[in-house]
Amino acid sequence: MTRYRTLLLAAALLAVSPNVPGVRGTAEGQVHQCNFCHNVHGGAADRNLTRDSRTEDLCLTCHSDAGPGYLVGPDPVTDTVKSTLIQVAVHAGAKHTVGDTTSCWDCHDHEAEAVGATFTNLFMIPVIRTLPGGGQDSIVFTADTAQADFIGTNGVCYVCHTQPTTQANGLNGHNGPMVCTACHTHVSGFQGVGGGCTTCHAETKGIHRPVVPEFDRASHHIQLGGAAADIPDADCMVCHNQDGHPRAGTNHVVLINQDDGSLITYDRGVSATSVLTPFCLSCHDADGGAGGDTSPFSDNIIRPEINETAWNVSSHQGSSSAQCADCHEGHGSEKKKLLTPGDTVPDPTTKVQEEEGFCLDCHVAGVPAGSNLAAGWSTTTFWQNDFTQNGALLNDRHDIAHADQVQSGAKVECVNCHDPHTASRVGGALSKLRADPDPNDGRVPGSGWFGAAAGAGQGTNAMTEWCLDCHDNSFPATVTAPTLPLIDLRTSYLNVEQHGAQSAASPVGGAPGWGAMGTNFVVPCQACHQPHPQNSQQLTNPAAYNNLFQLRDMPLDSDLTTPLASTAGSPYEVTSLTTRKYTIGNGYNWCNTCHSGSMGDQQLTCFACHTHGDGRF
Questions:
Q1: What is the SS3 assignment for 309-338?
Q2: CA–CA distance, 372 with 390 (Å, rounded to integer)
Q3: Domains of the chain by residue range
Q4: What is the DSSP pairing of strand 392-394 with strand 128-130?
Q5: pLDDT of 173-202, one tens digit each?
Q6: What does the alpha-carbon distance between residue 358 and residue 351 come to, in Å, rounded to a whole number?
Q7: What is the rounded distance in angstroms from the CA atom of residue 477 to the CA atom of residue 316?
Q8: How many other C-beta atoms lie within 10 A of the C-beta of residue 64?
């Protein structure tokens, strides 16, 4: 009888494939010989094992670094088993409760495998699985190359992970077509360790765009100096809440309000951009990020501060209801200061879509911006070739256009004069400008430094102070000076100009009075000049009209609003400084709007003799 049983056992062992290391886990290749694990004459308490009392302990005698190194094959499921880091007692991922464990035998069971008509599933996965809550379900795991093999209706993972979000998170969203074990491995106890934020967000995931490359653009948050892929997860979680992440199948981004910790949900493509503004301002306000941190990321860069009070009454926020995300990208942009659209590379010659090009996209006819500035800046720049000051050619506008910058060497941008976050919709002209265009010179426009320097009896004009803060030939760091220096208008205006402070003690009796501007009145810059090329004639007929030096069509009275009554030929065109004949373009009529008849019948161009800085202007 004993011999008969021995023959039956031998026949059974010959009927199965031998233990072949390195063979992929097909139905045949994954079958062990019985006596490799079982003692048919009686063994340990659990299933007559040849050694160890717990199934998973027996498994690890092979499937660990201490074992003989038996690997089923080069598959992501089984390659990672051979490791001392295996968490066999905690198959649980991050969402499992403490003590909610799964052993090897719960998923790999060669006995249950035989319940089907043939050995069809890979890796000793049974065709029938007893569920944790009771009952049974079938498993189809004949391939492991597609996500549906794991979380399809009969997928090996979905048998237990039956929540609808589990299937949605994989098949329709966050992880796109990836198989579960690409991130959830044996080594980690099936916790998601496929990589940090940058590993997953480096490429398109379902409906989610690749975010990591945006941090390699010309301007971007988190400036560590290395590759964007090296950004620590902690930096991402400064802004992004991770509860319930990933939210696959949606465009939802859950952000953290830095002031109170509340959550802000933004649905890209659905939510209005106004949803993001409170989030942005919660970090860029006076108290910075959470806990007052003004450099919340690991790059230790202090974030730019936005005056929230000023923003709430700003022209952008009020007249056009602009929001942060309307002008700035969240992660990075190919343009300066995270300007939108972030994926558009500006033309290196024209700078279109960057700097002034960005501003003029809105400040043009037919858009919400309240002022059409693009028309003036789009006219041809008029360079004066027959007159220079200090050798520098002079033109009809600030050097904002790229072509003008190339010719003069100077470079000034819209933001050098205007702060888009504080330009007010409720104040006067000065409220549209930066409070101090040159903050390093010790002078603050509006504090009276011009009037104080001019002496007693001279009225302070804050706008003139503002202009002379840069036109003193010392420029702030954000402005590039011209190749050939301009004259120091501030010194000239205070010391030798008849239109300026010198008019109070002028040896010739002081400046004449006109309109509301009486004798000894300091003539403000903007009575004659305007900051943008916006002359009416220039806009309607730019080929024929183009005043030099940003001179107005007509000078303004002391209210800086009312044009002065002209004597002839207005609106004026001043295109020549040396033409000594009666012409609307030589400056005679323009000057004689105020200095009526001072030249008698000679009618020569005033600018041939009178210019800034020569003591006779």
A1: HHHHCEHHHHHCCCCHHHHECCCEECCHHH
A2: 34
A3: 13-194, 212-338
A4: unpaired
A5: 445 566 777 767 666 666 666 567 888 788
A6: 9
A7: 26
A8: 18
pLDDT confidence bin for 148, thresholds 50/70/90: confident
Asked whether the beta carbons of 529 and 396 are under 8 A apart, the reply is no
Could you give the angle at the alpha carbon of 348 between the alpha carbons of 342 and 350, nearest 5°?
A: 95
Burial 125-158 (b: 16+ CB within 10 A, else e): bbbebeeeeeeeeebbbeebeebbbbbbeebbbb
Listed in sequence order, the residues at least 6 apart from 474 whose beta carbon sits closer than 8 Å to its beta carbon are 438, 441
Run of H or E including 138: strand 136-138
Cα-Cα-Cα-Cα torsion 273, 275, 276, 278, nearest 10 degrees, comes to 130
**Tens-digit pLDDT profile for residues 469-492:** 988 888 998 899 998 888 888 888
Q: Cβ-count burial of 166 within 10 angstroms (0-12 exposed, 13-18 middle, 19+ buried)?
A: middle
Note the pTM of the prediction, 2 decimals.
0.69
Which residue type does 522 have? V
Q: Is residue 36 within a helix (H) or strand (E), and if so which, with residue range?
A: helix 34-37
- As a whole number of Å, the end-to-end CA separation of the chain is 131
Give the residues across from 256 on adjacent strands.
263
Measured between alpha carbons, how far is 36 from 14 in angstroms, rounded to an integer? 13
Radius of gyration of the chain (CA): 39
- How far is it, in rounded angstroms, from Cα 472 to Cα 467? 9
Q: Which amino acid is at 256?
A: I
- Report the greatest alpha carbon distance in the chain: 144
Beta bridge pairs of residue 610? none
Q: What one-character-per-residue DSSP string does 29-60 give? A: TTPPPHHHHB-TT--STTTTBSS-SSHHHHHH
Are 148 and 155 within 8 A, CB to CB? yes
- List helix spans (H) across 190-314: 197-200, 233-239, 276-284, 308-312
